[in-house]
User: Fold these one by one.
Assistant:
Number 1:
Amino acid sequence: MASDKKGFLGFIGFWAFIVGLIIAVVGGILSPANTVLVVILIILGLIVGLLNITGKEILLFLVAAIALIVVGRVFEPLSLLGIGEILDNIVSYIAIFMAPAAVVAAIKALWSVGKPGD
């Protein structure tokens, strides 16, 4: 995350990331398929994408986001105590949280590649 960013916006972006992860984990355990949580995670993901991802971090962030989104329902076969379903719900919420940030990062990357100069 953009550790070199200072000031209020960096603070907001950092806490949006932390709160988004907490909501994704707790929501995946306690409240799967909750529309309100999905909307909150999308908004927090947009904030993270706009405020936290720097040019140096875009490639690594996009690879990580793609990995999360592609994983899908990989834990479903773990049926002991419903662990697989809980893990799938958590990963799904994290993917929902990271998808808008990934879109913002991808647009930043395309803008960087497409703009004249450098």
Number 2:
Amino acid sequence: MGSADLMPRNLDTRVELLVPVRSEPLRRDLEETLERCLADDTFAWELRPDSTWERRRGGKRSVHRELMESALERASAE
């Protein structure tokens, strides 16, 4: 796991870390979080053919809401 922006301009002035994620439960959690981020249609933008960006409307999935609900569920189980 690491930055998706490993470019020379970023590596010249800061430290970037890459680490393997070997724990299966952690890998599943990361994959689930990534899936949620990619499925988010509430805070999403789409690049149009004319190179302008348009905000999606009428979305049903919010990664922010889902992650907050998940955190609350984990906190109440402890």
